[in-house]
Amino acid sequence: MDKTVNQKAWFLVLPVLVLVAFSAVIPLMTVVNYSVQDTFGNNQFFWAGLEWFDDMLSSERMWDALARQAAFSAIILAIEIPLGIFVALNMPKRGFWASLCLVLMSLPLLIPWNVVGTIWQIFGRVDIGLLGYALDKIGVSYNYTQDITAAWITVIVMDVWHWTSLVALLAYAGLQSIPDAYYQAAKIDQASRWAVFRYIELPKMAGVLMIAILLRFMDSFMIYTEPFVVTGGGPGNATTFLSIDLVKMALGQFDLGPAAAFSIMYFLVILLISWVFYTVMVNLDKREGN
Amino acid sequence: MEWMAWTLPTAIFFGVIACLLVTFTVLAIKFPETPRVGVLRIETTRGDRLFITLLGSAFINLAWLGFVGTNQPYAMIVCAIYAAAVFRWV
Amino acid sequence: MAAANASRLNGKAIVMGLYLLFLMLPIYWLINMSLKTNDEILGVFSLWPQNLTFANYATILTDASWYMGYVNSLIYVVMNTVISITVALPAAYAFSRYSFMGDKHLFFWLLTNRMAPPAVFALPFFQLYSSVGLFDTHIAVALAHCLFNVPLAVWILEGFMRGVPREIDETAYIDGYSFGRFFIKIFMPLIASGVGVAAFFCFMFSWVELLLSRTLTSVDAKPIAATMTRTVSASGLDWGVLAAAGVLTIVPGALVIYFVRNYIAKGFALGRV
């Protein structure tokens, strides 16, 4: 669909522009300003040049946090995307059961993130939590506050619990848009289940799956509240992801300079990744349109 | 505005970016752009190429700082070459 | 054939059953704990409350420092939803109907704000709102949440508006409707479900967010999420009250979800199906 060229449309966009500029551009400029200065409080600043960037680039702490973050995002994408598709394929197509599934599946998405953390914090405790207690009873040693593996598994299972439904709902929306005629044609051709999935369902889901991957990747890349509540970033620094580390630095220790330099690099990485995803998404859209 | 802690260099930095945006807007009005497909196999307009240039330059500067560590201004030469390449081929 | 179909149906039911069980178990456990006394939580392990008690809920609903948390959260969430939808509607219309200079770049820039980590913005927001004297007010949190909710609302609404044929606009203009009247009288009813879904998502993301709302408030506008971190008393953690507070935070979400249940899948796909 060709859109009409109309420069007056700018006026319709203006309110959004002003609002987002106020809440995004001004803070970002401030971050850039902080990143090249040192402060001892009282709004007194001293020129520090690129020192903080240099510090951060050679700081093991940041690289470790980045590595953990990348590992975490990769793991949860590898679990949630296939699982979400699988669940969507098994969902009832219409009627009462479909509605029920939709409502129940959306429920975890609407729980405040710190409550999600609290739920799993309790659920996993060996003394009062169902999961921890059950695991303890069958003889699995499980303690997410002491054991690094257990902490990671808890954080990952929590994220899968929290967000797989989002992927499933997106994939489900994609599946709903496939006309029945396609399936009938496949049946006449005696296509295998796999062929139906590969050549009918997957292409139809491609667009929404890109959105799912984009959202899941970005949100997992900036995850803060849930692991913070459950493990507090521990044991040691084992589950200290980028945002947790950043908040510790910026609001905990009030190290404005290093935190700002960290923020900028964090933001640049996000910008790069969202640009790549977005470009792929737009091109997918275009190819479908042709 | 005091809390924003402006410095001359950062003010110049944002000034340059603002000027670039204005220039490209004026260019877009004077010479309407047609998207083309470059080496990345994606359609880009002049604005897209500016974005790719700026984002890439940020990473080039960081890489220079991380690997070379001294003579930061020379990184800008690499950026200029990169910018030329982007505008020519992407 | 029929048998094969039936077995496949059962297979599907089993998969869904297991998945829903996995989703519901932790929530069930939270509700279970909220109905127990602290002694029972720490003393005996039981799958359901032995001495059913609503004392935990009573504590929350009678103590102002608790229930004001919910009130504060609701105030800024509603403010944010109203602001986001109001500014996003015209913008989404512009993006869906017209092409103008820099439209694609603008759209992408908006999206990057949805992707930006709140942790990056927490500190400058704190400074910004302190300097303009809005620290610890509801509007500060509402505006801060616009950072990710406005782009999201634009994105969703644009998707829904795309589905409305352009001929409708053109006919209306030929019939002499002004833009404003057309938008409210004709266009809004057509995308009512889209507006509902967008509002739902703004509500949801503002409701679940903790980092910014906690950073920008201290007393007067303190959200429930931040209140929940103070359940540590002299006798240790008050698990029962904490669980009850958690259950009560789920209720508003569960209520709104009921109203948009038929559009929710399309909404999550940002109207792009």
TrEMBL record, chain A:
Location, primary (coarse class): membrane
InterPro entries in the record: MetI-like, MetI-like_sf, Sugar_ABC_transporter
GO cellular component, one term: plasma membrane
Domain of life per record: Bacteria
Keyword Membrane assigned: yes
Membrane-topology annotation of the record: Multi-pass membrane protein
Residue stretches spanning the membrane: 12-36, 70-89, 96-123, 150-175, 196-218, 259-284
Cited CDD domains: TM_PBP2
Domain ABC transmembrane type-1: start-end pairs: 66-277
Keyword terms of this UniProt record: Membrane, Transmembrane, Transmembrane helix, Transport
GO BP, sorted A to Z: transmembrane transport
Pfam families on file: BPD_transp_1
Entry's localization field: Cell membrane
Family annotation (PANTHER family): GLUCOSE IMPORT SYSTEM PERMEASE PROTEIN GLCT, TREHALOSE TRANSPORT SYSTEM PERMEASE PROTEIN SUGA
Similarity comment: family membership: Belongs to the binding-protein-dependent transport system permease family.
Name this polypeptide is given: Carbohydrate ABC transporter membrane protein 1, CUT1 family
Taxonomic source organism: Roseovarius marisflavi
From TrEMBL, chain B:
Source species, domain of life: Bacteria
This protein's UniProt keywords: Membrane, Transmembrane, Transmembrane helix
InterPro entries referenced in this protein's UniProt entry, alphabetically: DUF2160_TM
Pfam families to which the protein is assigned, alphabetical: DUF2160
Residue ranges of the TM segments: 6-29, 50-67, 73-89
Protein name: Small integral membrane protein
Organism of origin: Roseovarius gaetbuli
High-level lineage: Bacteria, Pseudomonadati, Pseudomonadota, Alphaproteobacteria, Rhodobacterales
Automatic annotation (TrEMBL), chain C:
GO cellular component, one term: plasma membrane
Coiled-coil features, chain-numbered ranges: none
PROSITE patterns, per the entry: ABC_TM1 (PS50928)
Keywords: Cell membrane, Membrane, Transmembrane, Transmembrane helix, Transport
Topology in the lipid bilayer: Multi-pass membrane protein
Similarity remark: Belongs to the binding-protein-dependent transport system permease family.
Protein name per UniProt: Carbohydrate ABC transporter membrane protein 2, CUT1 family
Organism name: Roseovarius marisflavi
